[in-house]
Design brief:
Oligomer: single chain
Number of domains: 5
Number of helices: 21
Strand content: 15-25%
Number of strands: 22
Strand order of the largest sheet: 7-16-21-18-17-22
Distance between the termini: 63 Å
Largest sheet: 6 strands, antiparallel, barrel
Shape: elongated
């Protein structure tokens, strides 16, 4: 029977001699470290101490009361400990404090186990650590470490060579250089940004990869040299793989042995400071280097250092340098675990009112900080892991992508939620009256997911005149004159623009000369047999040349661009000045017939079932410069539009519909169905006849949010599985 068990309250407490119970024996290799030169550093409680477990390389923070008990621990029994406390402090020993201390020591394996329980405990630990092949694969796919070196001896041997980096004068000079570099880059900001486009080339990607490897190596060496200079040991350096992404790491756990918080903060910040130093030097080098590969390498080093240091490493919500720096600045070791425990306690008390004690004494700002940090971390991790899951989903082939996506979402998002809900269910009998309110709220939210609500289908669309026709040049030609202006009323066949084609004029002149020459030759022929045969040939050539002249004249007449329909010139291409050359792909004008207006757009397969002909809605232009127009759906496409007729809606031309260019046509990335709607009444009054981009807002069939999400997920799964 262990001491911890004997101190637990039982119904037969009178039958047990508590004073005779032995205290568990402390391990001889443990070290007790005072937390600070004066024991009262900012952020740490007075009398803060730490226990160092060298076997597991772990540190445990304890208060002064626990230290006072451990100082008398070798007396051996509870009774002798009680007497020693009475003799030293003149007070009675609190058995509850002894009980909690024993449990703490036993849970963290800081005492020698009772011999008869050693085997059973080891077997329980092995059983708890035993994993199925699937669990092992999932864990090692998500995260594993590969130690590469034990650098402590190397760092200590080479520390004198980098000692100058720790001098304040060096960092004052680095600060001046950094400010100078930023100032000079600001004067060439456009050129600096233009260099970024070169990073997407093969050489740019290689430069970025090498820069990243160099910067991260220097980052870890910064941690290592600083730790050694502060008097700590660096046990290992290696590579950690997080979702198969390699990340260098340096084990500086021994820094907790250092007495001052300032020392640990310096070790935490060393990597980021080194990265910023590299960024400063690279930025300054970029300013003075000529264009070329070396300058591109300096740009890669500069951007890598600035971005990784400021945007990634400073983030306290992930276990990067920013987290440890934040934890040490606050003086809260194991910040993440303690905040998570406090966040779970707060949520359980809020929802169910269990009446559990706080995981640790914390009030006011400290309590709010722990709870806020926990929920900020959880929210951040939710979106981070969801983003990683989407990245993995798109990176691998479809079936494997879906599987890895499910692993990411299940392991990092669904699994923690499931564990917490299991706790709630297991403690359902302990719930107070607050649980009723919580249950009603949950049922209300669940019901809201199942209740069909009115839903507005938003469709990217353009609003144009129902009857409109563009005018193009029949061939590459030169503008001679423009006879109309924008907004002018025209009749069908009216000449809008006169064009000329010198090639046609040259060919026509040549054809007339040949025609005249053949006529002259034909007139000189006599009526004998030989001349008659040649005359017949010339007559045929004359007829062919006449046809050629007629065709050229017809082609020349087409150079007069005419109005295709009665209407108004809604658009007239700018810079239609005489003498300018144009090709046959350039739209010269758009003639629209005043009257009915039509909105045409594209809807995806998910929303297609929500609308039908006869549904009502409105059209809203994207700039919100015009009043909305009431519309009626008149046509819903039964087949996907491929290619997109309304190219102005394609993303390749700045529109909202995802598309790609192929063979000169805009192809939708996903199935897009055309929807047409007519403006109601005089909705066209005062509206320009040119194309206006916006969206149709159609009042579709009511649908619950839950059913919509379920359909969307099933649609994606079926589509990506290739079914």
């Amino acid at each position: 029977m262990t001491a911890a068990a004997t101190l637990e309250p039982t119904g037969a407490k009178d039958d047990i001699d508590v004073d005779s119970l032995p205290l568990p024996q402390l391990r001889q290799d443990l070290r007790l470290i005072e937390g600070g030169a004066d024991g009262q550093e900012a952020g740490e409680a007075p009398g803060h101490w730490r226990i160092h477990d060298p076997a597991a390389q772990r540190f445990f923070a304890i208060d002064r009361a626990a230290v006072d008990l451990l100082a008398l621990w070798r007396v051996g029994t509870v009774g002798r400990l009680r007497a020693a406390v009475r003799a030293r402090d003149g007070r009675e020993l609190d058995l509850d404090n002894v009980q909690r201390l024993i449990e703490f020591l036993q849970v963290n394996e800081l005492v020698h186990p009772v011999p008869e329980q050693t085997f059973a405990r080891v077997m329980r630990q092995r059983q708890a650590m035993k994993r199925s092949p699937g669990e092992w694969l999932l864990h090692n796919y998500l995260f594993f470490k590969v130690p590469l070196a034990r650098p402590d001896a190397f760092l200590r041997r080479t520390l004198p060579y980098v000692g100058g980096l720790f001098h304040p004068a060096f960092w004052a000079g680095a600060l001046v250089l950094g400010l100078l570099g930023l100032y000079l880059v600001s004067r060439q900001w456009e050129a600096f940004l233009a260099t970024f486009a070169d990073m997407f080339s093969v050489s740019g990607i290689v430069s970025f990869g090498l820069s990243l490897a160099l910067v991260k190596t220097l980052h870890e060496l910064g941690h290592g040299y600083t730790a050694v200079r502060m008097g700590s040991r660096v046990t290992t350096m290696g590579v950690a793989f997080v979702v198969m992404t390699p990340i260098l790491y340096t084990d500086t756990t021994d820094a907790w042995r250092l007495p001052r918080r300032r020392q640990r903060v310096m070790i935490d910040a060393a990597g980021m400071v080194v990265e910023l130093l590299v960024a400063v030097l690279a930025t300054l080098a970029w300013v003075f280097l000529p264009d070329g590969g070396v300058r591109h390498a300096a740009f890669a080093l500069a951007t890598t250092g600035w971005v990784l240091s400021l945007a990634v490493n400073l983030n306290p919500l992930m276990r990067f340098d920013g987290y440890y720096l934040f934890s040490d600045l606050l003086g809260i070791p194991n910040l993440q675990e303690r905040s998570f425990a406090m966040g779970r306690w707060w949520l359980r008390e809020l929802l169910f009112g269990y009446g559990d004690p706080q995981p640790e004494p914390a009030h006011g700002r400290r309590k709010a900080l722990l709870v806020g940090f926990a929920y900020a971390t959880w929210i951040y991790r939710f979106f981070l892991f969801l983003g990683i899951a989407l990245l993995v989903y798109h990176y691998f082939f479809k079936l494997l992508g879906i599987f890895l996506f499910a692993v990411e979402v299940g392991w990092f998002i669904a699994m923690p939620v499931w564990r917490e809900m299991k706790v709630w269910f297991g403690r359902r009998q302990e719930s107070g009256s607050r649980a009723v309110v919580t249950a009603l709220v949950i049922l209300g939210l669940a019901g809201a997911l199942l209740v069909p609500f009115p839903y507005v289908v938003r469709i990217p669309a353009v609003l144009t005149a129902t009857q409109q026709a563009p005018a193009f040049a029949p061939r590459p030609a030169r503008i001679e004159s423009v006879h109309v202006r924008q907004g002018q009323a025209v009749r069908a066949g009216q000449v809008l623009i006169e064009l000329s084609a010198p090639e046609i004029e040259q060919q026509l002149q040549s054809a007339h000369e040949r025609h005249q020459l053949i006529q002259d030759r034909l007139g000189r022929r006599s009526a004998d047999g030989r001349d008659l045969s040649e005359s017949l040939v010339l007559a045929r050539e004359l007829h062919l040349e006449a046809d050629r002249i007629h065709g050229l004249e017809r082609e020349r007449s087409r150079l007069a661009v005419r109005a295709p329909i009665d209407g108004v010139v809604a658009e007239l291409t700018s810079e239609l000045s005489p003498g300018r050359w144009i090709d046959e792909k350039t739209r010269l004008a758009l003639v629209a017939k005043p009257g009915a207006l039509e909105a045409r757009g594209y809807v995806d397969a998910e929303d297609l079932r929500r609308i039908e002909a006869g549904d009502k809605g409105r059209f809203v232009d994207e700039l919100r410069l015009l009043d909305s127009r009431d519309i009626d759906v008149v046509r819903v496409g039964a087949a996907a539009a491929d290619p997109l007729d309304n190219w102005v809606l394609a993303s390749t031309f700045g529109g909202p519909v995802p598309a790609r260019m192929q063979g000169g046509k805009a192809l939708a990335e996903h199935a897009a169905f055309e929807v047409a709607a007519a403006a109601i009444g005089d909705a066209h009054a005062g509206l320009p006849l040119t194309e206006i981009r916006g969206e149709m807002q159609i009042r579709g069939k009511p649908q619950s949010l839950g059913l919509r999400v379920l359909r969307r997920v099933s649609h994606v799964l079926v589509r990506e599985a290739g079914a």
